[in-house]
Structure prediction request, 465 residues.
Amino acid sequence: MTIWTPPLPGHGPRYRELADAIAAAAASGELATGAKLPPQRRLADALGVTVGTVTRAYALAEQRGVVSARVGSGTYVRDAGAPHQAFDHVRRVAPDSGIVDLSLSLPPPHPQREASLARAMHSIQQDPALLRAAIDYQPEAGQSWQRTVISDWLATLGRAVPAEELLINQGGMHGIFLSLSALLSPGERLAAERLTYPGLISGLQQLSLKSVAVAHDEEGIDIDALARAFEQQPFRALYVMPDCHNPTTARLSEARRRALVALARERQFWLIEDDIHPQLDEAPLTPLCRLAPECTVTLFSVAKVLGGGLRVGAMRAPQALHGRLIAALRAQSWMPPPLMASLVCRWIESGDAATLLHWQREELDWRFDRAMQILGEFSPRGRRGGFYLWLALPGELRTSHVVAQLQAQQVNVSTAESFCLGSVSAPQAIRVCISAADSREALERALQVIATTLGDPDPMLWQTV
Prediction:
């Protein structure tokens, strides 16, 4: 069987020539939208190049938005007019649709959230000095009083961070992008767990960075595997979620935190600590930034308490790194919007944020306990006070089959595919965001649907005659 074999003129790196050929063939229609590219080894043999060359070419074509890789399936030509998105993060379900969307990690809805926002906005409206500041240029790292307020707020969450070590940014995703921009150059490697936050994957693609996928288990990232990975593919930084791994909910044990810090110091790589879930109802473990402040950048956000639409967060970094982070921030957005940062700070100063967090903790505890009651026989993994559960599918069930059944019953969940780093194969598992349901009643209905579907699923096509 003949496979698509483009000519490579030999005027530059072979992988780049192949990526250019893929783009040209897609633009001309020689490779139609949806067409599957040849298996890498077969194309390598046909072209007389290494498999690594084809792998690099396919990765570059994906970074350019020409193709998309589907784990376990292959690489396909994308529709040139379709948006290039590594993951969906926007709520697309209409409130009156009847669909219970448990696919997004959102704080539980409460009218107090909107009421508190209105009071904070009114407070700023009555303050001429804040209004003037809101339309003026500000320091790149945010105003000093804003950093003090956020520092005090973090201390109440068990994260005592000096205000002078903080930089205000536009949320957790922005913090990731700033960290990658400041710490790595195009072509350098970043390590992360095999399953990781899709926003990180998107940032790596945008910045043309390479990834190293590392094994992890119930105690978090495998330190021995991390050391082996460094020997084989030295990396510049490691991204890790110590307190509540997304999506598996694993928590990095105290012993592994200390082993990780020792390894980072020995091999001299940076730690990017994603700490947007400091409100979990568990005995606190030592943050990485306290164990190794000289080589750790820690990311915080108000998205999981006040609301993601505010786009306000902060990052803690050693002073030696502030210049590079500020340069990256200035290049991307000049400064964090002072109005939004002031709005969040007034919300915190009023005490409304603490009241909302207290309610949220109680609500999440109730939702977690109820979810474990309904889904307990399927051994979901989760943390009390957390936003989601991780559920490995029983028996021979396939994720695509289960998700289709749930959608037919108006329940949405997340699959593992969008969390897979690089070419990692997706496990047969789903993430269930118990925080996202609009009410307790809606959550209970959705959980019952999930339990029924897993306990008595419709037969898969291969099981029928």
